[in-house]
Structure formats: structure tokens, C-alpha cells
Amino acid sequence: MAPPPATAAAAAAVRPHLLLRRGGGLLPSPHPAPATRAAAAGPARRLRLPPLRFSLSPVPKSLSSAASSHIPVRSLFTGIVEEVGRVRRLGPPLTPPSGGGGGGEAPGLDLEVETKTLLAGTQLGDSVAVDGTCLTVAAIDPAASTFTFGVAPETLRRTSLGERAAGDGVNLERALTPSSRMGGHFVQGHVDGTGEIAALRPDGDSLWVTVRAPPEILRLLVPKGFVAVDGTSLTVVSVDDEGGWFDFMLVRYTQDNIVLPNKKVGDKVNLEADILGKYVEKLLAGRVEAAANADS
Prior knowledge:
Helices cover 14% and strands 32% of the residues. The protein has 296 residues and is of the alpha+beta class. The protein has a seven-stranded antiparallel β-sheet with strand order 12-11-15-9-10-14-13. Strands 3-4-7-6-5-8 form a six-stranded antiparallel barrel. Strands 1-2 form a two-stranded antiparallel ribbon. A hairpin with a 2-residue loop joins strand 5 and strand 6. The longest helix is centred in the last third of the chain and has 21 residues, at 275-295. It is globular and about 65 Å long. The N and C termini lie far apart (47 Å). Residues 5-73 have low confidence and may be disordered. Keywords: Repeat, Riboflavin biosynthesis, Transferase. InterPro entries: ATP_synth_asu-like_sf, Lumazine-bd, Lumazine-bd_dom, Riboflavin_synthase-like_b-brl.
């Protein structure tokens, strides 16, 4: 399909360099390469590199930055949407929290979502992905068939949940259990950022979707790789780093069971890149930094 027009904000993605063996040593390659070629470097023990500490937090904008918050893995999802729920209410908590947050920061919001089938077996404290955002069930109303989630200020800043309104549909998926089939890929529910729908184009009974995304997310995407869009596990078809976009195709069944086809050009979507790409990027960044330190 024809790519969307490039914008000034869509900068080219910067990828870490791969390491190649030259003269028996390890040196950074002068040519950028996609993260998917990281396997060519072989197992970590063969590279004889110092042990690295890993964080599952979003990839920092600067690959050399040592400061990154640690977000533990509490739940995993597959990206296979179980149900499209309906937003009942998004607003300040009806009952003020005890103790108070203070600090002058804008408070979080309560998100109340109506569900038809997910109440069964769900308990307080369980994790549910709402449009791909891992949220904790804070209240359950069986009579009204609703969950209520507390949405923190940081979640509102990083995701598109703050733009939801009563009546909007949202993708819902409960956390993975050991007996579940892995129909999609490992999704953490830790949204990396938002993208913007750039184009929607029918192709028979399928639908092509083009999404503009920031460079720090695009560099983690590869053709035929995974991405979660509003919590839906999808296969990337094309990636244009210079144009600042990627695309994918929705088959008829997927269109009928997620909220994305109801959105329009310009709407925001939550994006989560495959965790494997984040691991590979951090591994390569560590190698490049170690090599640079060894040469200095």
C-alpha cells in the first residue's frame, strides 16, 4: 500500500550496531542493522561479556542511559482479545482514597467497564488488559456486570485511556493462566507509547491499517514480527522508519471482535512492542558500550 506522507515529527529510527568478529575480536559494525539479526551474535557466553541487569520497563530514549525504572512482570497476556467491553464511567473516584496522594499532582481516575462474560472467575486484585493496558480490578459489581479499575496519572500520560468516554468500546483480556493456549505472543500490558491511525483501507473483506509511531517504538518493529495495538496481538507487515509508520492487516474475524475497526484516521492507539526486541536492543547497547570502554 502507499505509505502515508512523511511528517517532520516522524524521524528516522536509530538502531544499535551489531557486533562482528574481526581478527578474533569483537568490534561494533559500522553499518546499522535490524534488531532481528541479533541472533547472529550467538549465545551470551560465547561473547564473554559481563553479566547485565535487565529491566522490563520501556526502553529508554538513550541507549547508553543507565537510569531506568524497574517494572516487575506481574501478569502476561496473549493479545487475543476475549471481549469488547463498554465504558460506563471515567472520572474521579466516587470514594476518596484514604491517606491521599498529595504533592499537587492531578489525581488518577476510576474506569468502570461493563462486561458480559469476564466476571466469572475474576476476583479483586486480578489483572485485566484494557485496550492493552494492564490494570488491577479494584471493584466488582455483579448486579451491574461491571469492573472498576484505578487509572494512575502516569498511565493516563502514557496511554490513550484518558480519552475514553461513556459508551466507548474497549478490548478486554484477562491475564494468562498456565493452561491457556498461546494464540498470540507475550504481552505485558506495559504500554510503550501511543501511535496515530494514519490510514484505513479495505482489501476484500480484510482491512489494512497504517499507524504512525515514534522512532523509539518503530525501531523495535520488524516485518512479520509482533506488535500489540490496543492490546491486540498483530503481525507487522511493513515498517517505514523514514516515513515513521508501520502497517498490518485485520482479517474479518479480528475486525468483528476488537474495537480498532470502529476508530477513524487520527485516533490514538496504545502500542506495545515485543519484549524480545527490547531485550535484544539492550543486549546490543551493552556490547557497544563495553567495546567503546575497552578501546578508550
